[in-house]
Amino acid sequence: MSDIVNPGAARPTHPLALAPVVSPPSSVDGFVKQFLTNLNFDQGVSLSESDANDQYLALAGTVRDYLMARWLEDQARQNEQQSKTVCYLSAEYLLGRQLDNNLLAARLTDIATDALAQCGIDINDLRELEVEPGLGNGGLGRLAACFIDSLATMSVPNIGYGIRYEYGIFRQTFVDGEQVEQPDAWLRMGSPWDFPHPEAAQTISFGGRTETYDDNGTERTRWIPDWSVLAVPYNMMVPGYHNGRVNTLRLWRAVATNAFDLRIFNSGDYEESVRAQTFAENISKVLYPEDSTPQGKELRLQQQYFFVSASIRDFIDTVLPADYDLTKLPDRVIFQLNDTHPVIGVPELMRVLIDEKGMEWDDAWAITQQCFAYTCHTLLPEALEVWPVDLLGRLLPRHLEIIYRINEEFLEEVRERFGDDMLRIRNMSIIGEHPYRSVRMAYLATVAGAKVNGVAELHSQLLRDKVLHDFAEMYPDKFTNVTNGITPRRFIRLANPSLAELITEALGAGWTIDLERLRGLEALAEDPEFRERFGAVKAANKRRLNEVLFQRDGVHVDETHMLDVMVKRLHEYKRQMLKVLHIVTLYDGIASGRVAAADVTPRTFIFGAKAAPGYAMAKRIIHLINAVGSVVNNDPRVEGRLKVIFPPNYNVTLAEKVIPAADLSEQISLAGKEASGTGNMKFALNGALTIGTDDGANVEIRQLVGDDNFFLFGMTEPEVEVLWAQGYTPADFYQAHAGLRGALDLISSGAFSEGDRSVFEPVVSNLLYDDRFMVLADYASYIAAQERVDAAYADQDAWTKSAILNVARSGFFSSDRSMRDYIDRIWHTPPVL
Ligand code: 26V
């Protein structure tokens, strides 16, 4: 029974209730028993009557039970040791499927496979039933998922806090080549990996007003909100790899409060009471599918405050002991702000400490500044969140007052330091004035955070030099870099089992948690037999992809082709259009008879990309890719040597199949725009060679793998700045390159739109007259680099050697290393063993 319901009651005990809570099913027999128990008593069916979904749910439940026993032990130990916890605050977690990951972590894969076989069930048939929780848009959400995996694997206490969206990222379909979004009802078939804790719900309030009152001679403020919702936590378990450790991912769901309901119900208005419920539950209904242009929507601010307030209070109320001295809060927690989305947590912690716990402003501010750190994930100015003061004040009046005071004191500090420099003060103010009064969340995070970091060397440098220049000048020690990473468990072990086996055979098993050991493969790159086996793995992965895509979309991947892959959100700055221009250039060469099809390197181009539903240009580019594909793939003159495949609904599950099969990784953003990229790391670690600009983490990848094993092209960031300052005139590039003219003219001619010139005219005129991302300026350099790719690919053995060197030298990009950097430079959270 919960302490909250009956606080005075003695805790129940029983000798058998000592840990371990249940004996984990570490044998096949034990697993069978637990599986059948779950099938009978959770799913309510007998084995013979069960369908595959029942079986999947019972299997997941069995794995979960096992992890749960470990989880209970770990929580107890952490509390005992009063350890410091990383509270990762993130609006998104792009987890991917859970079953295989959890089986692997808990060393249950073989046991579960055998146990199910004994029940006459092929585990492979159940794997495919899992719907991945798509609770994120792209890189930022997937990064959060990699980080919590690494923290669990390193035995560092961590709670990932976020939102349990009822609908995750939309399911993408194509109708006549155009993106059509479908709702992602990921919970429909049951949700075996999380479970609710209604007893730990928090009430989250909104609106209303503030008032001051006299508290024994001191003036204090209180907030009198006018509506509230319940935040109900759902726990997911985050198992470490082979270390028995289980951390927590705690996602909040919005539910109407009883009080809300009852008041209206008593007034006899049943319909109104149901409406109120719907209103409350809207808060966690859907993930916003934008990933760079904040729309300033009120519901989004509600989501942000909802999960952040619930999380901070959850940590203080339920993780810390009841009598905890909050002046020591920084000893127990660091709240890591994953971009600006959780930054409203800063005034929230101030409010809790001052208004609810009775602390003085200066003390509360000193604590708050030690409890938060901020990661910035972008360089695009339009992606920096600002909230209109009107809206924020209406929804969170007390928080706005606190923000104003933080800003006043901060600007006073600026004055003391730099004098009455009005321009500087206006530039640094947390409150912006144009085009309307608004709160600049990145500035608030920078002022409040103990540390501010970018996500790759170049990005962190540009943050210091440009985006947050004045702040870096004022607080040079706040700024640091932590280069992103990816988890080798999911993206090598699980996604590429054949490569994993080959590596283990060569280097022993330790590499999965010590990825720098991959260096040991360097010597093997010289070994012809190893190269042959490595090449065979790539070929097998292509065949596997072929099977998956044929099943999924009815398309074939030819394993003799070079697989040239560009998978990432669709955005102009990422420049999918450059890739399109390359394809159209090759096609134009063949179609015009200038190039014999037989002289073209056979390539299959794979795209994966979702566009934000409101981003018209991005959607048009998707349409164009599909249109080019249907022409190129069906033109007999091409003789099947070029093929464009664009499977809809690219997600983590598909990434796990596409990336291990790739030969060439396209990382072609305009220099200075991609903060880091993490797909680039996944490809390199799976033995694809990168064609890329000097941008984001590409810079570090190239430094590590070496110029000979990387196809660099395009302007550098300083060159981009110079060209932009001079005035970028795309027409000059159009005039200068016949190939470019040919490609653009072919698109304009209606060749990919059944003669209708209007369909793709906006795309072409954007490139010619209004392109911030300077696609045409890098065209020639890109085409030249692609010719180097063709030449290199012609020597398969040399290519394979480069691929092996990419794997061997990319160990740095393990998210375990990222976590170590955060721990050393920002968090100072030792493991709890
Ligand atoms: C921004 C917004 C704006 C409001 C609507 C919802 C929404 C959702 C997400 C975002 C964040 C966009 C920033 C982002 O995803 N950045 C990516 O972060 C990756 C991990 O650090 C990095 O590798 C990518 O380069 C960077 O684009």
Automatic annotation (TrEMBL):
Broad enzyme group = transferase
Functionally, this protein is described as follows: Allosteric enzyme that catalyzes the rate-limiting step in glycogen catabolism, the phosphorolytic cleavage of glycogen to produce glucose-1-phosphate, and plays a central role in maintaining cellular and organismal glucose homeostasis.
Q: InterPro entries attached here? A: Glycg_phsphrylas, Glyco_trans_35, Pyridoxal_P_attach_site
| Known catalytic reactions | [(1->4)-alpha-D-glucosyl](n) + phosphate = [(1->4)-alpha-D-glucosyl](n-1) + alpha-D-glucose 1-phosphate
Q: What is this protein called?
A: Alpha-1,4 glucan phosphorylase
List cofactor names only: pyridoxal 5'-phosphate
Give the UniProt family note. Answer: Belongs to the glycogen phosphorylase family.
State which Enzyme Commission number(s) the record gives: 2.4.1.1
What top-level branch of life does the organism fall under? Bacteria
Q: Which terms are listed as keywords in the entry? A: Carbohydrate metabolism, Glycosyltransferase, Pyridoxal phosphate, Transferase
Q: CDD domains annotated for this entry? A: GT35_Glycogen_Phosphorylase
Could you read off the lineage of the organism from its UniProt record? Bacteria, Bacillati, Actinomycetota, Actinomycetes, Micrococcales
Concerning SUPFAM superfamilies, the annotation shows:
UDP-Glycosyltransferase/glycogen phosphorylase
